[in-house]
Amino acid sequence: MGIYDRDYYRRPQPGFSLRMPQSMIVTLIIINAALYLIDGLLFPGKTLAEHKLTYILSLNSNTLWHLWQFLTYGFVHDPLSPMHILMNMLQLWFLGGAVEQIYGNKEFLRIYLAMLLVGSLSFALGSGITSAITHQESNYELLGASGAISGIVILFVLNNPQATLMLFPIPIPVKAWVIGVLCVVYNLFGAITPQSGNVAYGVHIAGMVFAWLYFQRRWNLGRFFENIFHKLKFFSRPKFRIHKPDEESGEPDLNAEVDRILEKISHEGEGSLTRKERRTLETASKQYQNRRQ
After folding, report:
1. Does the N-terminal peptide bond of residue 161 adopt cis geometry, omega within 30 degrees of 0?
2. Do 183 and 208 meet the contact criterion of CB atoms below 8 Å apart?
3. What's the pLDDT score for residue 239?
4. CB 77 within 8 A of CB 143
5. Is pLDDT of 251 > 50?
6. Torsion of CA 112, 116, 118, 120, to 10 degrees
């Protein structure tokens, strides 16, 4: 069977479908927009506290024991400023797609959630340090996907430094690496400025630092969690096993294994492969070349 005959290489058929979109970018935008609209329709008001859905999901420096808020804050935006969600979703739409194609939709989601978590942890740490210095309880709300979006922008720049982007709102062509430098300088300057307004520059910097480490260290979160799962599974195995003499221990079908690996690349990207899977592809490639010769 040729690779183009496999299900995951077939183009989707046109028509109406109730399935969730395969693009993780579109899924994230839909979730953010839906929560914003639901909150605005069910809980209208002129203060954040009156927007109960946003208030419950955002991260408050006084209620850090609400552990779910360390992730949910990234899916709600300022109900009093529509530009907050608009600018975040535009950046995710224009730059996130290229990043998702590089790492695959599942790994992209893991990266996105990890950046949200790193951002909220930095916010909690900063709030604790501020309270210890001032001897007063801080009362801040953290909401919005800006920390993860900042990390996605940096990942795009690191993978495509010479790509040409257009500045917004002035359509001036600029190299991607210039955008990256401006983004870092702007957030560093905002973080050290005493009166920086209500922008969480520290959370943006945390997302960008994680993106830089992820790229430089060639991390793969899917492989990381897979290794942890295998280690836990190993420790849970019984120490004594009985093997039957007539038990078959033949090698698995190479073609079936190659099909599985190719399907994994299609869904999660090449970076999700383990060393064993890469060796399997190399072995299959060598066998194919020998048969052709």
Report:
1. no
2. yes
3. 54
4. yes
5. no
6. 180
Q: Is residue 12's pLDDT more than 80?
A: no
Give this prediction's pTM.
Answer: 0.73
Name the residue ranges covered by the structural domains of the chain. 22-220, 254-293
Residue 137 has which token pair? 């309880």
∠ CA 104-91-98, rounded to 5°: 30
Q: What is the pLDDT of residues 75-114, one digit of tens each?
A: 999 999 999 999 999 999 999 999 999 999 999 999 999 9
How many whole angstroms separate alpha carbon 211 and alpha carbon 208? 5
Identify the CA nearest to 20 among candidates 9, 31, 32. Answer: 31
Give the pLDDT confidence of 148-163 residue by residue, as tens digits.
999 999 999 999 999 9
pLDDT, position 86: 95
Beta carbons within 10 angstroms of residue 127's beta carbon: 20
Percent of the chain beyond pLDDT 70?
Answer: 84
Amino acid at 272: S
CATH of domain 22-220: 1.20.1540.10
